[in-house]
Amino acid sequence: MPRINLLPWREQQRTERKKAFGVGMGAAALGAGVVALAGFMFVNQMIDSQVGRNKLLEREILVLDKQIEEINSLEQQKQQHIARMQIIEKLQQSRPEIVHVFEMFTTTIPDGAFLTSITQTGQRYKIQGVAQSSSRVSAFWRALDASQWLKELDLELLEAAKNNTNTSGSQEFTLYANQVTAVADDASAATAPAARNRP
Prior knowledge:
Structural class: alpha+beta
Largest sheet: 4 strands, antiparallel
Number of helices: 4
Number of strands: 4
Number of domains: 2
Distance between the termini: 117 Å
CATH class of the largest domain: Alpha Beta
Shape: rod-shaped
CATH superfamily of the largest domain: General secretion pathway protein M, EpsM
Strand content: 15-25%
Strand order of the largest sheet: 1-2-4-3
């Protein structure tokens, strides 16, 4: 019976299978590389897109912060203008106060007493006069103290009038008083917050 040697054919087949396996492995590796590269590029693109959005948000936040600062500054200016307008309105309303004060001086001075001088320094008045007796000075004091236009009265001097020809016992007097006004208090209250907010 004749023998046929199949070894060369099997060896050739084995070699072809190895080649096919190597080509398959190379194609798989190439495909995996392409997929990995595509995935890497996609992830990088997503990261770049997110970074761009973050930068846009940061720019918009900075713009909003500036707008908020401007709004706060405008609000402060508005409050300052409102406070000034209120002070001006109260100053306009307080203009007749001086008229009331001097009218009060003329209506409260008792008979037998007269004023020699009235000096005003700010809201403080110095009132000098002569009265026939200390009781008339007391009456004038009580009338001023009951007035709504003066406060913090102070009697500095009460003595006999220096007049050699005067035998009636006249008394010279000096009174100090502060004018009642709401404008000064409101002005100080309006400027106090500004002083506190100064850097």
